[in-house]
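dumping this here before i forget
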Amino acid sequence: MISYLNIYAFCKVVKGKEKSVICDLHRGNIKFIPNEMYSILEELEVNSIGYILNKYTEEVDAINSYIDFVLKNNFGFISNEKEVFVEIENKFETPEIINNAIIEYGFEAYSLLKLVDNLNKLNTKFIELRLTKFSSNNLYELRKVLYYLSTSSVRNISILLPYDRDAHDSIVSLKEQYPIINKMVFYGFSEDVTEGDILYTTKNITQINGYNKENTIVNCIEFYYESLKYNTYYNKKISIDKAGNIKNCIKNDTVFGNVNTDNILDVISTKSFQELWTANNDKIIDVKHNPLRYNLMISNDLIKTGNNEYKIKW
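structure:
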């Protein structure tokens, strides 16, 4: 009886330069495999198990071990006919113009309320507000902004601010008043402490702004499909520094405009601003041969090298 090995649609086999991986996007399981196994699995996509065993008579034990590996890890199953799976819906296309925004604000230089109103018009879903300073005198303005955001397109907001003993309790109480706040980070604290979704860190704002999330691995369906076409860190992202400069990321040097003089929609609609949105990992020299390239989020600035490729700026 003819039998076939069927890999589940949510299990993706990705080839790298030295080794490959099988990523189970449903269960979050990742397993490294040799490139020889990748080649056999590729042939088993269209050929029966018997055909492959007869073709590679000297590799029977290895091929059987590959099949056992797939079955043991529940990456697939054997059947008497080749199953045709309906491809999982690509969920990387989202309707919002801007998905997430990082705002650095010092209660001067520009109007925060006007900025978030403009971001709301772009259907922005997530905001990270990095306050460069804060005291009790700034509570009124912050409350106004949070009140506005509570009825906007924004789903949640994270707030990072310097630790101030006098204003601390008032700030923490905002989280109860405005459920849209999903996380608070107090920087410049004496030690690193985590209390639920309230974090205290010894880092300062400069360290936070310059931080790169090295080796961040994500294994889920939405991330995978987005990474096939887009850069998962820069796609639909905007950052505003404390001077109101519009950037792809706070730590990047390139400035595309300023919120005081330029229309945000006009700026983000330019080809130059959106260039990094499509700089996916297949175009990044440092990782394009990494078998985990569709699971990696790279937050570094990127330098264009020609041939529509980039390298990571360290």
